[in-house]
Amino acid sequence: MTTTAVRPATQGTAGALTGTRPLLRLALRADRWRIVVWALAVAWLTVVSVQSYDDLFGTLAARASRARLIASPAATAMAGPGYGLDDYTIGAMTANELALWIMIPVAIMAVLAVTRHLRQPEEDGRLELVRSAPVGAAAPVVAGLLAAVVGVLAVGATTFVGLLATDLDPVGSALLCASVVVVALVLAGASAVASQLAGHARTASSLGMAAIGVAFVLRAVGDVRGPQSTSVWTWLSPFGWSQATAPYTEDRWWPLAIGLVATAVSVAVAFALAGRRDLGRGLLHERPGRATGRLRGIVGLTWRRQRTSVLSWAVAVVLCGALVGLLADAITDFVADQPTFDELFGGGDPTAGAFALYSVFLAVLAFAYTTTAVGAAHGEELSGRGATLLALPVSRTRWLGAQVGVAAVASAAMLLVAGLVMGLTAAASLGDASRIVPLVGAAAVTIPGVACVLGVAVLVLGLAPRAFVVVWAYVAYVGVMAMFGDILPDGAGAASPFTYLPALPAEPMSWPPVVACTLVGLGALALGIVAFRRRDLQG
Amino acid sequence: MTDAITATGLVKTFGAKRALDGFDLRVATGEVHGFLGPNGAGKSTTIRVLLGLIRADEGEVTLLGGDPWRDAVALHRRLAYVPGDVTLWPTLSGGESIDLLGRLRGGLDPRRRADLVERFELDTTVKGRAYSKGNRQKVALVAALAADVELLLMDEPTSGLDPLMEALFQEVVREAAADGRTVLLSSHILAEVEALAQRVTIIRAGRTVQTGTLTELRSLTRTTVQVGLRDADGAGAVLAERVHDLRADDGHLTFDVEATALDDVLAALPAHGVTSLVAHPPTLEDLFLRQYSDELDALQVPGR
């Protein structure tokens, strides 16, 4: 018998994990700026928040009164399990009030990273190309998950380094950052499972977001029913686990083990499911659509595209309005205890000042929606769907105007509904029905700001669409001016509508600035549309 | 005959790249006009200029008697466009997309829509994000062909279609042409253009390198002749000066000959005893590749 040199098929490094390292490098290369921006933003906002706690609650009395406010059910729902309320140090305050709001964005980042790496390449057909190379079946999944983990760790580490610059105990800060990392890992694992179940990347990320929402509600219910993690509900939520570590007070490390075990289990489930589905298909099947359509125009199409986004943002804005309303009595009591807070809320009736400020926060949240809506119009242009419609007898003005119109109406409507809900809940909480109308007014008077944001967004879209991030910078600027405008030099807020709009209900209504802001916004909008008509379509 | 499209001296630059560099195009009303060129030659840029989606930096362009940039909306009532890479709304079914596009146009013929859906075997209930490339292409084809328009602008419309659907596409375009519609068919599938087009324009690096009827273009280039001769060597010596790529093989000569030299060459053959004769007119592929022979050399592909 003659022997021939046959190379075994599985020679060398061939295996399920072959190719993981180059794929991980590729994923990290694609993500590098995203990771840097997230890490710096999260760390910066954390440090700034801790410093503002230091500035605002320097005295024992201020912190004790803050502890009473935060112990109310509505505040607890949005904060934490309330460790250390009887000796409310800045550390206890950070763990109780801030930690959740670091965990949520980092969890969102992790969910988006996992679905982006695990499903998007498959949907775009890139994965087919990768898998046809000598790459193991598990390698893209492992590389994608590792890339998400690297991102989460980078955010955690950067935040820890930032916190070292504060007066907080380093051990507590390490535990806080570890808790943030672990909750993000748990949700990354859940998204890995969702990525195998869902038929499409967008469904997968929606499932991941829904998991964050459910986890948030579970811990909110738990923390309200049983302070200091004594409710079963709290222990059903990864946020509950990570908040049970109680950094700066109890400093417990063991709850993190629950999160790590949950992560390991969900990743194992994801791998098991991955072996059971075909490339490009999910385990959940999608319902077929209609064979014929009823959509009549661009407005109908825009609403169809945007409705999920509009409703999600509206729920967020309205819930924030409800929270402010439910807290109305606590805010009133708290402000009455703290005469120095008159300054913070601009003098006059301090409660009215607080509501004026909260209305601006609601408005900034609505502006974020407004910006995503105009950004989506740009996405339509880049995808080629814009060209498909503009090759029909559809003018540029109609195409863009319909999309901007839907964004304007939706933004204004969500602010009005949020104002109404804020008014109703405040009236219930204070037992004073006369609160309703002024609070609807407080939300309504921010609507000219929508015109300003739309004006900036459409102007950028018309003149320099590649620089769309400028619009986000403008919304962030308006938000920062609303929060810190008082302590910044005069004139810094000159480009923010809230520098001019009356701060209802603390100030009397004044029409000229309302009309002026609306006209400036609409003027910029008109210029933007003219510029869009004159430029080449992109994509 | 009037012209559906005339473009002269079109220039369009994107940054440092000149996508169109003095491009000329004339499409007569009622003809199927093939528009040939490899990737990046400027075909899509031309079609986007014709649609008024982008504006040429220089040059004159008239489409259906109007200015495609200024009169875009009015002109678009009279034309339909099929992109080469169709993107659909991910959450809309194919049927919803077809009907939306039809309504925005002012209505489409429901019978023609049903007929095309059936012939293209399109499942209209599938969501946009779940279609394969070929099926997305079919959605755009049904939407465009069901519309009652004078002009069809098609930018590589059959990319991703299987051979059966490709054959059906050719049939449908012939029907459209028989109805008197003008078709500008950009393609790099030369057989498709050869089967459908009366006239073709070849674009290269943003310039027109050839335009005319297929017959005219063929007459500009060489015919391949294979001839059996009793005295092949003698004939070879006589012909060597007048033909190209002369090869002798066991009593047969194969050579390419310019249209202008055909008379001479054929007159010289009988003296050497012709036993068989086969002559191929140049295919469109030959015409096309000859325009790009230097690029083939650069790619180290043997020319034809």
Description of the structure:
The complex is a heterodimer of chains A (539) and B (304). Helices cover 71% and strands 0% of the residues of chain A. Chain A has 21 helices and no strands. The radius of gyration of chain A is 26 Å and the shape is globular. Chain B is an alpha/beta fold and 304 residues long. Chain B has helices at 43-50, 72-76, 94-105, 110-119, 133-145, 163-178, 190-196, 214-219, 232-239, 262-268, 284-291, 293-298, and strands spanning 3-14, 17-28, 32-36, 58-63, 79-82, 151-155, 182-187, 199-204, 207-213, 222-229, 244-249, 252-258, 274-280. In chain B, the strands form three sheets. Chain B has a six-stranded mixed sheet, with helices on both faces. In chain B, β6 (151-155), α6 (163-178) and β7 (182-187) form a beta-alpha-beta unit. The longest helix of chain B is centred in the middle third of the chain and has 16 residues, at 163-178. The radius of gyration of chain B is 23 Å and the shape is elongated. The model of chain B has no long low-confidence stretch (mean pLDDT 90). Classes of the chains: A mainly alpha (539), B alpha/beta (304). Chains A and B meet through α12 and α16 of A and α2, β5 and α3 of B.
Number of helices of chain A: 21
Broad shape of chain A? globular
Q: How much helicity do the residues of chain A have?
A: over 70%
Q: Give unreliable regions of chain A as ranges.
A: 1-12
Radius of gyration of chain A: 26 Å
Strand order across the largest sheet of chain B: 5-6-7-3-8-9
- Distance separating the two termini of chain B: 36 Å
Q: What is the beta-strand fraction of chain A?
A: under 5%
Distance between the termini of chain A: 63 Å
User: Could you tell me the number of beta strands of chain A?
Assistant: 0
The whole-number mean of residue pLDDT values of chain A reads 87
